[in-house]
Design brief:
Blueprint: H1 11-23, E1 27-31, H2 38-50, E2 56-60, H3 63-73, E3 81-83, H4 98-118, H5 124-134, H6 139-148, E4 151-155, E5 176-181, H7 189-196, E6 199-206, H8 217-225, H9 230-250, E7 259-262, H10 266-278, E8 282-285
Parallel strand pairs: 1-6, 2-4, 2-5, 3-4, 5-6, 7-8
Helix pairs in contact: 1-2, 2-3, 4-5, 4-6, 9-10
Amino acid sequence: YLLTEDDREGIEKQREFVRIALSTPDFAILEGPPGSGKTYSICELILQAVNRNERVLVCASTHVAVDNVLEKIKDHPSVIAIRIGKDHVSEKVRDCQLDKIEFYESRKIKNRLLRKKKKNQLTPSQEYLLECLEAGSTNIISDIFLEAANLICGTTIGILKHPEISYKSSVTKTVYDYLILDEASKTTFQEFLVPALFAKKFIIVGDYRQLSPYIDPEDIEGNLDGIIKSEYGAICLDLFESYFFSSKFKKRVDKWKNQLIIEEEEDLSDYYEQQARALNLSCIKIE
């Protein structure tokens, strides 16, 4: 297990979360800022779950979050992990991709069976497996590992590429004991529903202060309308344009200097001056 350091700060809260998650009949929530130990708590939960012969589905909206969990736990002897998806996968976990497992494991198993064949030690089932591998039917290895795997990892949408989950598959849908959703604040409810259909219990992990990677411009405009006066908004646009052209002409003219001349009411001219100072732009106020 991972949470073994009794003197480490926050260790008891992490252990308490794992106890709650393992005993919950439906869901549990783990919330905390970056660096608070959420990932190690997830890994501890996974290890204890697989040691109880339970299967775990780990999902997140980003590949980075998925791979971050998998990197820390994939080499543990009790974990049989498969990473679903081919694109944007970390080099450190590519050996967990299904096509890589099928390729390398089929070669290893085939060589082992050939050695046993020379000694006339093959069982009927081993003979059949060797015939399949020699005929190029390596997908049988994928089927074996998919059935044996106790940890499946992928993004909330990419998980649909799992052969047993894919909507195109006629195979009976696998039901996992746990769905662990990491970086939940970045995940929409619709994205959550995709893997949630295949799990008995939901473990929601994240930081509510973490922004979603997808932001609707209309929502931003609506929020800012009540905060920034229209006059101040126009000032920000003016200064942005001045800053842009100043940067552009500095590259062409060695001694270029952009000088703002401000002739406005006092409160607006003060705001101009504050924003210009923030952008390191020179300005002259006309009283």
